[in-house]
Amino acid sequence: MQFEARTIILKDGRTCTLRPAHPDDAAVLIEYMTRTAGETEFTLRYPDEVNYTEEQEREILGSILNDPGQIMMVGIVDGKLAGNCSVSGIGNKRKIRHRSSLAITLYREYWGLGIGTAMIHYLTELAEKIGYGQIDLEVVADNTRAQALYRKCGFEESGRRTRALKFDDGTYHDEILMTKLLAK
Ligand SMILES: CC(C)(COP(=O)(O)OP(=O)(O)OC[C@H]1O[C@@H](n2cnc3c(N)ncnc32)[C@H](O)[C@@H]1OP(=O)(O)O)[C@@H](O)C(=O)NCCC(=O)NCCS
pLDDT by residue (tens digit) across 18-50? Predict the structure, then answer.
């Protein structure tokens, strides 16, 4: 969906613009998915699993921009992409259409500046405007930084998925399920 750009001041004094991702961001977002997948093990993909062509990514970004139930937000610092986050409905069936799902990743050099907090606050406002009743997410049990961010933003633990992930080194990792109820 389209939404208004918002500018925030970061902890180091720079500004960050939060705006909708646009089809013209396709190449930059493919590069971002590939690089961030190598910077942290807490994204779902390994770098070699980012297989979109620029044309496919353009199409995906265009359809998200035109979908009133999906939000794809980018954070821009000094004209460069710092990170991306999204909220989308989990399905259209009446019993589940109150639920949305959140994902967020920043380039490592932008961690700890307050971008994650600002993105989640803005996403929450937009998700409420859309009419979602809650935001759900899954976070790797070892990812204490992200869990601290989510708790600070009002998410509560709602369950645990045992051995949800198997890393290339053969280790298994649980996922924590978290939910934030929205004002209705
Ligand atoms: C998780 C992530 C999005 C956080 O974004 P961020 O912009 O760094 O977060 P913020 O700067 O807004 O910090 C939010 C909170 O995280 C916590 N935090 C920050 N640094 C931390 C650290 N080193 N250890 C533990 N918690 C920490 C603090 O509670 C902080 O709040 P505070 O600034 O009021 O103290 C970012 O680190 C990231 O992209 N990580 C890799 C991908 C990832 O894990 N995504 C989530 C998958 S579920």
Answer: 999 999 999 999 999 999 999 999 999 999 999
